[in-house]
Amino acid sequence: MRAELLIHGARVVTPNGVETLDIACRDGKIVGLGDLHGHWQTDEVLVARGLHVLPGVIDTQVHFREPGLTHKEDIEAGTRGAVLGGVTGVFEMPNTNPLTLWEADLNAKLQAAEGRAWCDYAFYIGGSQINATQLADLERLPGCAGVKVFMGSSFGDLLADEDAVLRQILQHGQRRLSVHAEDEARLRERKALVEASGDVRDHPQWRDMESAFKATRRIVALARETGRRLHVLHVTTAQEMAFLAQHKDRVTVETTPHHLSMVAPDCYERLGSLAQMNPPVREFVHQQALWQAIRNGVVDVIGSDHAPHTLEEKSQPYPNSPSGMTGVQTLLPMMLEHVHAGRLSLQRLVDLTSVGPARIFGIEGKGRIALGYDADLTLVDLGAQRTINNSWIASRSGWTPYDGVRVTGWPIHTVVRGHLAVRDEQLSERPQGRPIRFLDVPAVASPGADLTSTGDT
Ligand code: DOR
């Protein structure tokens, strides 16, 4: 009956629904739920009346650019933005410099994160021709989020576009394989279109609906053939959603707040190449299909695809401007605004940002407010109105496509394994992030990782 932190008086989103409960946290875990205030000995009581407590938000797609491109982003600033935005865990992508292809690359990222990451983290290994046959071992390394494949070139040199290579990648490993599905051959064929026009409004015509749909059809067929589970990242088209609805037994689906919140051509007219990302933000009819897929359950998770580039880089003439926008810090505020507008329920949001990531990737001890789970908690004020602006953004790139956007619903406190990383919207304590653990991977044996506490509540 002793807690280090007791959260008192909030409305808590649990597997039972929304209840007024106290949450007792000790040694990084949830050790008590109920009417606890006054009954438990506790070092600190955080009075949270009027707030909702969500299971910590897990963003399963971010690019933190370290090593090699730290003028755009780094692990410290990226995870700082995460916790300020209510995110308690991230999966980071392998298109850094060097690419994350081998054990040494993964270990370098784990080492770089130690003592500098504000939230918990796992790193993807990139799947390519040169490491394909080693992936079964690589994907089981502690701290590895799984394998990520780029079927179409985006930013960086990672690419696996031929069926023979993709088949080999799919055959080596067991975990869910994450894929960026745009068809490289079609992208090459169509690039002349934008080289001629130089107009960013043509971005969704260059990387058109069929480029995405074709790649998705190919990879789903190969995953069926090889019996591998698949996760299709940032799905953007109505056609893909209708197709993927027929493959939900083994294929999971991500969409992003960017594709749910912006539409072409408006976003390109307002923001120019700041709105340029891959796969592109598309027309209203596609956005409607993404919302429909949120409502009918086809979408499993929302990932931000946080992909920072500096404003200077973004201001190069299109198509030389790099694709990608920041997003980790605005994922939750934008989605809370969608909850406020009635586009999805709070329960469905939690399903997409906590329960879903834990379920589809087999994350240990996260994604749920329940006894024995990690005390990762995102405390939000559903009625708070704020204006998002660039000066709030922690990213080294220092900008957001939502500069000036007013939202209702805001993260107030962020708790990472019982530590208040953010208190009253301000950073607090020190970076406390640790590697995320997975059910089908051995625990991380790095200094600072508290292996003895696993499963011990
Ligand atoms: O727009 C994008 N930017 N899409 C990607 O797939 C990669 C990302 C980046 O790393 O910049």
What's the overall average pLDDT, rounded? 96
Radius of gyration: 21 Å
Strand-pairing-aware structural class: alpha/beta
Number of helices: 14
What characteristic shape results from the CA principal axes?
Answer: globular
Major sheet attributes:
9 strands, mixed
Distance between the termini: 12 Å
| Fraction of residues in helix | 25-40%
Q: Low-confidence parts, pLDDT < 50 over ≥5 residues?
A: 446-457
Percent of sequence in beta strands: 15-25%
The first-level CATH class of the largest domain is given as Alpha Beta
Small molecules in complex: (4S)-2,6-dioxohexahydropyrimidine-4-carboxylic acid
CATH-defined fold name of the largest domain: TIM Barrel
Give the CATH H-level superfamily of the largest domain.
Metal-dependent hydrolases
Number of strands: 17
* Overall tally of domains: 2
- CATH architecture descriptor name of the largest domain: Alpha-Beta Barrel
GO molecular function, one term: allantoinase activity
Protein name: Dihydroorotase
Keywords: Hydrolase, Metal-binding
EC number: 3.5.2.3
